[in-house]
Each structure stands twice: as C-alpha cells, then as structure tokens.
Amino acid sequence: MSHVSPAAPGPSFAARHLLGIEHLKPHEITEILDLADTYVDLNRRPEKHSDVLAGLTQINMFFENSTRTQASFELAGKRLGADVMNMAMQASSIKKGETLIDTAMTLNAMHPDLLVVRHPHSGAVDLLAQKVNCAVLNAGDGRHEHPTQALLDALTIRRAKGRLHRLNIAICGDIAHSRVARSNLILLGKMENRIRLIGPPTLVPGDFAEFGAEIYDDMREGLKDVDVVMMLRLQKERMDGGFIPSEREYYHRYGLDAEKLALAKPDAIVMHPGPMNRGVEIDGTIADDINRSVIQEQVEMGVAVRMAAMDLLARNLRAERMEQAG
Amino acid sequence: MTTLFLNARLIDPEAGTDAPGAVLVADGQIAEILPEGTQAEQLFRARNIDPEKAEVVDCGGKCLAPGIVDIGVKVCEPGERHKESYKTAGLAAAAGGVTTMVTRPDTSPAIDSPETLEFVTRRAQADAPVNVLPMAALTKGREGREMTEIGFLMDAGAVAFSDCDHVVANTKVFSRALTYARSCGALVIAHPQEPVLSAGAAASSSKFATLRGLPAVSPMAERMGLDRDIALLEMTGARYHADQITTARALPALERAKANGLDITAGTSIHHLTLNELDVADYRTFFKVKPPLRSEEDRLAVIEAVRTGLIDTISSMHTPQDEESKRLPFEEAAAGAVALETLLPAALRLYHADLLDLPTLFRAMSLNPAKRLGLPSGRLAAGAPADLILFDADVPFVLDRFTLKSKSQNTPFDGQRMQGRVLATYVAGTPVFRRD
Questions:
Q1: Hey, of A89, A122, A145, which one would you mutate to test binding to chain B, going by the most B CBs within 10 A of its CB?
Q2: A29: which DSSP letter?
Q3: I need a surface site. Which of A125, A214, A237, B163 has the fewest CB within 10 A?
C-alpha cells in the first residue's frame, strides 16, 4: 500500500541537508514533527510500506559504533522504499589511511541520494556535506550535534505532554560529552521551554549557562517541579580521565531513583536516549515503569522522525534536480 | 651604490614619529635622514655624490619604514620542502616587507645540532633574497629531555633557542637549560602554556567552542605556563621571550615580571591581533592556529598591551600547511597559517581601525624584535642597515590566496578585503621586491 503524506502548506522546509538543529527554524521543526506523526500511524499498521523514497539510494556511513541509530535509519529507509546500504567505516578504508574526503568522493561517485553519517569528530559531517551532491543527514558528529535524536525526543515529549512549549525540562548527567544534550538544548530552547542542566560541574561546564539554561549541581534541587526528566548516558569511552570519582558515588548523587524522581511533577516523564547504564545513571525499575518511562516510545518515534526527515530532504533533492534539468 | 628616497612619509619607530622626509642610503646603510623638501641635485652637490652613480626613488608621499624582523617563521626545510622552501619563503617575505626572517627549528628533523644548522644556513644563503637568522632547538629533538649544544649552536649562528610549540614540561630540564643558556648569553624563546591542561584542545573554552562541540582549553592555561616560566626566570636570571601572549589573563603576570626587572619580553601573533574565535564559524580549518583564537575581549586586551609596549613584538608565526593537512575534521586538521605576505596588510587593519598608529606597529614588528636579538636593523637612523620597505598604507585589495608566493596557501584572509600593501622592499639598500 502506498502512504500519502499530507500536502505541505507552501515551501517551508527547504534545507538541502540535516546537519544540526542550530540551522532549523521553529516552523521547520514543527513541520518535521507533524509529518513524523503520520509516519507513526503508518508504522503501527500491519502493512508498513510506502514508496516515497522508491528509486533512491540511501547509504549509512558509520565511522563510530552504533546499533540502535543505524538500525533505526535502516528501517526508516526500507519502510519508505529506498535501497539501503550499511557501511561500517571503522573496519574499512579508514584503517587503510584514506581521508574522510576521499571516502566521501568515492561514495559520491556511486550516486547515493541520501547519506547518513556518524563520525567521532565534531564538524566532520559538515565537512563531508560540502563535498557530495546528495542530501546528508547527521547521525551524530563528535560532541557537536545529533539532530534526529533531538527531533525524536521532541516528538516523544509533544505526544506525551500534548505540547512542546512552556515545559520545564531537566537534562541530567554527562552534558559535556553529549551531542544529544547540545541538540536538545538548542531545539527545546527554540521551542520556548525552560531548560535545566543537572550534573557535576566536571560534566556540566559553565559555558552552558550562556545558552539560557539553568545549571544545577544538586539533582534534588534541579528536579523540583519539572515536566520532563531527560537522562543521559555516562560516556565512559569519551572521558580521558577523572571526571567523576566513581560510578557508585555518581549513582548516589546523580542517578535517577524513585526518591529523586518524586521531586518532579507527579506526571513527569522519564527519557533516556539509550543505551542505558542501569545502576549508574538510572535505576532499572524507573526505566521499566510504564507509567513514567517513555524510553520505548523514544525508539518508536526515532523511526518515524527519520522517515519524515528523509522524506522532506528527498522532496527538496528531487525539486532541485528538476530545476537543474530545466 | 647610493640611493636617495625622496618625498616619503617616514615611519620612525624609535622616535615614534610619522612625518614627511627623505632618506639617503649609501653602501647598504642608512647614511642620513633628511628633512621634507630635500632636492636631489642640491644634496648630491653638497655631499659630493656623483649623480650618475646615484639612484633617486620618488616615494610619492607613500610610507617608508624599517623592514620587518619576523621572529618565528617556519620554513619547512629540512623535511617538508613541499610545504615551503627557503626560496619560496624568501620571496613571500620580500613581497610582504619582511627583511629579516628569524626561522623556527620545528622542522623534521628538528634543527638541534650545529650540522643541521649549517645545512639550513647554507640553503638560506643560496635561495632567500632576505636576511635569514636561524633559531635552534632548546632540547634535542624538541623532546624536552636533554638540552642542545647551545654553545656550539651559537657559534654556528643560532640567534635564539626554542622548542617552539613543544613546552618543556619537565621543570628540572627547563630550569637547567635556562641556567646554561644564561651562561652563554643565549635568548630562550618559550611557548607559555600548561601542556597537560591544553592537550588535545582545538579551541578556547567558550560558548562558541561548546556550541561547536570542540575540545577546548581555558585561556588560563597560558597564564599558568607563563607563571611557571616567570618563577624559573627569577631562579635562573635567563634571557627569555614568550613567543605568543594571546590572553588578557596572562598580562598582569607579564607586567609584574617586567616591573621586577626580569629579562623578559613577549610577542604575539598577527592572527590573535586581527581574528577571534568566532572566525572559525563552521569549522574552517584555515583558522585553526596554536594557541587557538581567543575571545574578542582577549583580542582587544592584547592590542592594548601592544600599544602600551607591554607586549614587545608582533610576529607572523608563518606556518605553512598543505591542503591535505587542512582538509580534515577540525580536531584532526593541522594548526597554523601562512602570514609572511599578509602580516603588514593585517597589521594595517589595526591602523585603519584607529587602534595602533604606524610608529607603534613598526616598533613591534621591526624595532623591538631587532633590539631583542641584538641586531642593528629595525631602525630608521643613520648607521642602521638599509633594510627598508616602501608601502601604500591605504590601497584596497581583495586577497586571493592563490596569488601568494608561499608554496602553501593556508591563509585565513582568503577572499577578505584588506587595505595597504608593500610597494618595494630593500635589503641592505638593494631592491629585493617591487610591485608592478
């Protein structure tokens, strides 16, 4: 069966790439989320196939390990009818000394239409996007941005809370190393929410205050009356020494447990981008509490948001090609 | 050989004046500074000069200043001649008004023995049209473990000792090297930076670096490095020059050290004077330098320190990098920018912005570096070498990096509007560059 997207009211989302939230306007964010809502419906049907990307080639280039983001992008592409190829870049050309740009040029010569890229260095996806002729989606670059994660979080919040503005949202944990935190901070700020960043000062640098966020190093203080509690994973692999004394002290002070969560609003939701370290940043029973935790919904929204983003970029790509063809 | 520069706007950094006048050059030296309105024929008659053997240059009211003495130029010989050779660096220097290049030893291998120093001296003499004075490494291989043969290297012509951007982290090694250097009367040029704190940093910590997700270092790391070095100077009494002071926070320490009578001077780079961290924008790697570009507040504080003389010298910190080492993600890209040809036009931005006048600029670019190295140049006075530049301070142009004479064209000023450029460069009275 074919899925028909609602007609967009005029040319609003006109971007060539999705490299970050920084360059999106609020109405563009809303447009992506509105379209994603329709894909949530599609994904819940027994027949989930659409052909809006039929004939297009999607390449997932992951220079960094990923299971869930890559699977989500792959499924999103396949549900929309694209030809999807996964490339685990760690294992291939990088080891042979090829530069990022050469790799990009090589792939470009194969005429992909959508390139989904994750890279361990901030800005690497921007650099790559300058060198290729297709639409590029940033699936996470260094500690810079992870736009589709922020969009799926926004969709999850909007569906759970009925709105995406004037909410008190706490982002907790390892902010410094987190691209998810940066993208969320920018997106939720653009949509006019109040944001609190909670964590030890080694993981929440003071520069974040300049983004208009309130910073708390006392989690109990910070969680008071919030609508949304967003936990982050402690990124042990990005730490080059001594940010926290131990995991057990971290859990004691900054792990989300029932007692700390009780300080938030009674209907506050709990989010986590995954993968979780149970017992380090979040108590297992909270993560599994279907009344509070929307962690499974986040995964579901992830596929829908990525379908919406690729659909919109493909429309712009096709329009651009029509124009070039005269 | 006699040359008379008439109708010039003389920039005298020693007297601090910017006034019309004329200059008589004979036998490679400045023979006389003459007043406005000097007539060639009258002067030649009065001085018994044969007009047939003398050249008269009408400067047309343009600026005549002592040539730039640039401490810290990287020429990539030996090791990376594809990035820059003595020939191309020399041509770039001549076109940029740099009459003396003081070259860095951070080559591959490092210039840390009299033999390698002799090699580069030979290459420089054969190929470069401007004066070249080499620096040598302070420790072998710039590894911070064993001091180099400072005495032999001085005999071979080393004018200063520096491990460049490698900080000698071992304080015991550094204090011994400073003590030994003092006994030889050698000048040590260091990079004030706390090396562990700044390891891996690609930006200065700030809102901008946070937004871009770049690994960043606090500007405090520069002050910590300087504080340590100053303590060691108190201990050893060595002659010391900080290569680049780029932050407001390091300035009070520098001021105190000078007031306490330590033999300390400091420089800064033209990029830190004319650019700030925001210029990096969307990860533009041509703006990646070391230390990283700072905030606007830091930039203005450093300009003010140049104005007051607290910071003594301005350098190009000319660092050629090929395209391949810059076409990488920002964190992985090589640091450094070429600047021999853009040093003067960039410095003139400060003049046009009414931040620094021309005598102050040339005090920092010509007079002070020459004084610190004990050179007779850098002055507009009788008896000084006739290393002179004639430049138009006002002519506008748009920089096209592919017109640069360096082998590498990694300049942050590509495509930018600039104002003022060199018309002619003279080394010991001989023209080495003339703009057509």
A1: A122
A2: H
A3: A237
